[in-house]
Amino acid sequence: MDELTLDGLREIMRHCVGTGESVNLDGDIRDTAFTDLGYDSLAVLEVVTQVQGRLGVSIPDEALNDIETPGALVEYVASQKAGA
Amino acid sequence: MSERRVVVTGIGVAAPGGLGVPAFWDTLMAGRSMTRRITHFDPSDFRCQVAAEIDFDPAANGLSPQEARRLDRAGQLALVASREALADSGLGTDALDPSRVGVSLGNAIGCTELMEREYVVLSDGGRKWLVDPEYAVPQLYDVMVPSSMAAEVAWTIGAEGPVALVSTGCTSGIDALGHGFELVREGSADVVLAAGTDAPVSPVTVACFDTLRAQSTANDDPEHACRPFDRDRKGLILGEGSAVMVFEELEHARRRGARVYCEVRGYASRANGYHMTGLKPDGREMAEAIRVALDQARLNPEDIDYINAHGSGTKQNDRHETAAFKASLGRHAYETPVSSIKSMIGHSLGAIGAIEVAACCLAIDNDAIPPTANLSTPDPECDLDYVPVTAREQRTDAVLSVGSGFGGFQSAIVVAAPERTYA
Amino acid sequence: MTRRAVVTGLGVLAPTGIGTKAYWAAALDGRSGLGPMTRMDPSGYPIKVIGEVRDFVPGDLLPSRVVVETALMTQYGLVCADEALRDGELDPGEQPEYEMSVVTANATGGAEFGQREMQNLYAKGPSQVGAYMAIAWFYAANSGQISIRHGMRGPSGVFITDQAGGLDCVGQARRVIRNGSTFALSGGTDSSFSPSGLVGQIPPGLVSLSTDPDRAYLPFDVAADGYTPGEGGAILLVEEAASAQARGVRPYGEIAGYATAFDPHPRTGRGPNLRRAIEGALADARTAPEDVDVVFADGYGVPRLDRLECEALAGVFGPRGVAVTVPKTATGRMYAAGPTVDLVAALLSLRHGVIPSTLNVTAVSPDCPVDLVLGDPREARVRTALVIARGYNGFNAAVVVKAVA
């Protein structure tokens, strides 16, 4: 994966917690907080691990603290890719 | 029938800073931080590169070549500590009725260190999913089932009563002691080796905590990497070790004129039923465990002279247990010294609970309490007396030790000076 | 007065069936769950026959959120816990949270989950180890996840004593009931069927290498040559007796006696302590040997160990002095799960007055003087049953269950 799109992230997120009753990733999730999507701290870390592996980026703690939505994660990865 | 009482008559410790109780206590009293850059493996590719390691030579510490080959590092440390505890207790194993002797060994992650090494061979460095049975070593099943370590400890004392490995994650050590306490109290055994052991400084466990971002990343300043209750804390630091205590029924100990360190007075455990790793800030289940343990100990909050905290060095934990102490001890929480020895010897998962209670027994024995190392800038939200940097001499009769772990387990144990309890 | 512990709910998951009803029907019909290994390519391994749980679709039974972060052993535990609560008609949300406990056992941890992440570590690097590894593979995962799922916040525990753990955890559940809990979910679950988990079982030399599912696991038989590994789980809802009565729930039976004993090291030359565990459990239950109606034996399937078990049984009950059965010949030895599944079978025998038979065994060895229930299930008035378990390295445990008058 060269770039992380929202749909790409959506797929990773599905992979990380499945598609169960408490998780709905359809529709516009860009600005919805991970917690409101049913992703607790552990699930977010799993998503981040997958994103790091597939995109070849590293997301440090300080950055992660500010990433609360899928949109923010996509933007952060894009900025890293642009800077690389 | 009067209630059976349980006393501690022997202690053995293997911890970062040195093997044996004298080296352990010296490390704590000096406030020496034993965390350092990892030497067990090359940590360059890891987020956290610091741990509290033991410099341990199996042969120099009395392990036979076969024991050294057969046992995982956690098992080796447990054997060394068991033998020290037994010698310290003065129990002649020949004089014991084996059926009245038990073992309760706490351990969180099994024989991971050896299991990982063998996995690397079986899978040829992670290349094969269908691992190669030709490379299976004879002890592979023992490595897979951590109960093998409880068996090894049982053989050191010839225990033929209740023997079990207690594995409740990071509260394993304290829960194993609690179980040992119950076994003696209810009459299932007269003597129990109550213990904890773990050796998590291996790549897979460091990687696990890396992924959770739970470990400190102060790789450029390893000695000060673990800073419980400090505003600048960055997370926990793994450690390794074992502590073994001889729990003995009081009359059994009296009859043989045993030296008594202290009495185990109360123990309780609760689950937060909330999250595998997350803690609610109010600390209510830990507070409940503390209340029940105190109640069982027939002690009031005011009787507690020292609290050995879980103090893992994460913000979440520090606030959680600070709240728990306030909720359970009320005003007395502000007057009680609280310290975390993890600041010095790291978090050895299923061992640390037992190591911490060993420290509590020694605190009572020496009338002194260990400090929280590296605590230079207190977190304003943690407003208790965390005994920064320097050990204190003070009369110490009754001590509370707590633990908190993955799975949501919260445990508390109370030990108290013998003269206070049955002089 | 000592608080009594009864069992008011059962949950089972075994190679012979998912759910108590399916498991019991298969036990009475004599259907086996053993077969050729399908979980992985068996060609490179000497073990050919195992007891796999088939048709288990965790996503149908558990939230996806939980499925991704749990190993099979935990999924088995969660599903069994759900069934036990349903069966016992207990809504944990309506009970005081600190009066409900969870005490589980397993022998090997989440073997497949652990191997997968270990492979990530060594094939891809430390940053590729998944976040769930830290909470999925370890031994405490089952108690933690069950207590979280049901908000059960009382004293919890995890006991590891190899296969004996399946009884030791129930002994501990009785202890927490005695000490004040009203309910405890308790039992063993295990699944070690990953390539490395399977390979780990080879060195002790106790697993049968037979390729015939009907001839692989034959405890007490002249042809016994080892055991067949299985996987599965069972969780009991253990309840304080007065509470069950007040709720109007009919108990399957009482956990009337429990004892454990550890063997001396083989180099001492002294024999094992299985007999002492049995006698301890009987004494604890204030039960004379002649009052025991059936023994669910450990049945290792290894001639030397079968002989030792028969000696212990003969010592307590006299040669062929009691009906003995090993229904786990149909499931394989499910490690810590096995003895709890046996407890379920024992409790169902109390309820239904029928003893499931020992499938596949046809020719009891002259070295094994036991009255083994063979062929069809045996109808009998069962008021008291003894369940025995042994774990590798010398763990022995015994539980006595009794019908509640």
TrEMBL record, chain A:
InterPro entries in the record: ACP-like_sf (IPR036736), PKS_PP-bd (IPR020806), PP-bd_ACP (IPR009081), Ppantetheine_attach_site (IPR006162)
Coiled coil: none
Pfam families xrefs: PP-binding
This protein's UniProt keywords: Phosphopantetheine, Phosphoprotein
Domain of life: Bacteria
Keyword DNA-binding: no
Listed transmembrane segments: none
Record-annotated Carrier domain positions: 3-81
Designated name of the protein: Acyl carrier protein
Taxonomic placement: Bacteria, Bacillati, Actinomycetota, Actinomycetes, Kitasatosporales
From TrEMBL, chain B:
Sorted UniProt keywords: Acyltransferase, Transferase
Coiled-coil positions: none
Superkingdom in the source lineage: Bacteria
Annotated PROSITE patterns: KS3_1 (PS00606), KS3_2 (PS52004)
Domain Ketosynthase family 3 (KS3) span(s) in chain numbering: 3-417
InterPro entries from the UniProt entry: Beta-ketoacyl_synthase (IPR000794), Ketoacyl_synth_AS (IPR018201), Ketoacyl_synth_C (IPR014031), Ketoacyl_synth_N (IPR014030), PKS_Beta-ketoAc_synthase_dom (IPR020841), Thiolase-like (IPR016039)
Pfam family, one: ketoacyl-synt
Recorded family membership: Belongs to the thiolase-like superfamily. Beta-ketoacyl-ACP synthases family.
Protein name according to UniProt: Beta-ketoacyl-[acyl-carrier-protein] synthase family protein
TrEMBL record, chain C:
Keywords, in A-Z order: Acyltransferase, Transferase
Any single Pfam family the record assigns to this protein: ketoacyl-synt
Start and end residues of each Ketosynthase family 3 (KS3) domain: 2-403
Matching Gene3D superfamilies: 3.40.47.10
TM region positions: none
Assigned protein family: Belongs to the thiolase-like superfamily. Beta-ketoacyl-ACP synthases family.
Protein name: Ketosynthase chain-length factor
Species of provenance: Streptomyces glomeratus
